[in-house]
Amino acid sequence: MDLFEHLERYDYEQLVFCQDRSSGLRAIIAIHDTTLGPALGGARMWTYASEAEAIEDALRLARGMTYKNAAAGLNLGGGKAVIIGDPRKDKSEALFRAFGRYIQGLNGRYITAEDVGTTVSDMDMVREETDFVTGISPEFGSSGNPSPVTAYGVYQGMKAAVKEVFGSDSLEGKVVAVQGIGNVAYALCRHLHEEGAKLIVTDINKDAVNRAVQEFNAAAVDPRDIYSVECDIYSPCALGATLNDMTIPKLKAKVIAGSANNQLKDSKHGDMLHEKGIVYAPDYIINAGGVINVADELYGYNRDRAMRKVETMIYHNIERVIAISKRDQIPTYKAADRIAEERINSIKHSRAQFLQNGHHILSRRGS
Q1: Which residues, 6 or more positions from 299, have their beta carbon under 8 angstroms from its beta carbon?
Q2: Distance CA 195, CA 234 (A)
């Protein structure tokens, strides 16, 4: 990768490399765009095959957060951090506190949170060194684990997408094929089960599958078979890029709505879904519940307020994406991008007056 050429092509603002030999910290913070406000995005810990792969992931995820935050109506930009390491054995207080000091050094340009491979307790350690962290333990006035709220947003977005196809947003009797039964998907399955949906599930974690079978009366299939099952809704909730040349021809679903990030392997796959007449709920629109929830912490967390915003914003945004798609005869992923880009550009090109002391969205937290 020609790094500066890549940064220029997608208009990134900053890439920060963080190293602490004593703790073993090797991390990358990518800040894509702060037009709307400070960059908010989680810290992912993963066993990357190479440093180049880690950089690419940080950049891709940061740009995705810009679009997610903008489309969700948040006054926040997009950023992401990746920590190179095995989350099962490489974590330590020293590592996360070193990471927190790097975040504090950015003076509010980047606000972190938990992500794949990190937890609320990890963020509590980061908090020892920085004010710019969300998703910490509730005793610190935070929202805690965002997974249930993300799941609730996906549930609401799924209802909006189903309404377009079936004329009603009821999920009773609908067959939903759920790929991956992690924390978000498990909470999503509970909502679906309670409304009377029929579940088909798969995961490489057999214990997670068995739990869903027992608690939600779900049918289990091999991970390779989830794409071709007879269903109304395919819900990708595991790794990204599951919508690709190999899987899309197998799909029998009329709706795709799930929590996974980067569900399309390439933009052409969004075009393929559009041509097949499948209603695709764009990932960063439907899975924005978690970021809406942690963003509420910046104003003093109020769970009722956050949940109301998740419910109304995601349902409305899926309806809006579908309406633009139909009006302009474009795939839904392009309609989603249009919503985000128009909001960013409206602020970027509006007149700004000089202020000696600029506005800061986040005041210093007490210890």
Answers
A1: none
A2: 17
Residues making up the annotated binding site are: 180-185
Q: What is the pTM of this model?
A: 0.88
Residue 331 near residue 176 (C-beta atoms within 8 A): no
- Specify whether 326 is catalytic: no
* CATH for the stretch 15-63+78-140: 3.40.50.10860
pLDDT digits (tens, 9 = 90+) for 21-43: 999 999 999 999 999 999 999 99
51 versus 142: the higher-pLDDT residue is 51
Amino acid in the structure at residue 301: Y
Beta bridge partners of 45: 83
Q: Which residue bears the tokens 């020892």?
A: 128
pLDDT tens sequence across 72-111: 999 999 999 999 999 999 999 999 999 999 999 999 999 9
Closest CA to 15 of 83, 67, 71, 80: 80
- Please enumerate in sequence order all residues whose Cβ is within 8 A of that of 41, keeping only pairs 6 or more positions apart, or say none: 61, 62, 65, 78, 79, 80, 81, 110, 111, 112, 113, 115, 291
Are 133 and 127 within 8 A, CB to CB?
Answer: yes
Query: pLDDT tier at 364 (50, 70, 90 boundaries)?
Result: very low
Distance CA(286)–CA(314), nearest Å, equals: 6
Q: Pick the catalytic residue: 80, 159, 163, 198?
A: 80
Kindly report which listed range (99-113, 138-152, 280-294) carries the lowest average pLDDT score. Answer: 138-152
- Domain 15-63+78-140 matches domain 147-343 at the CATH topology level: yes
Domains of the chain by residue range:
15-63+78-140, 147-343
Of 310, 18, 341, the residue nearest 156 (C-alpha): 310
Fold entry, domain 147-343: Rossmann fold (3.40.50)
Binding-site residue set for NAD(+): 180-185
Q: Which of 365, 362, 366 is nearest to 296 (CA)?
A: 362
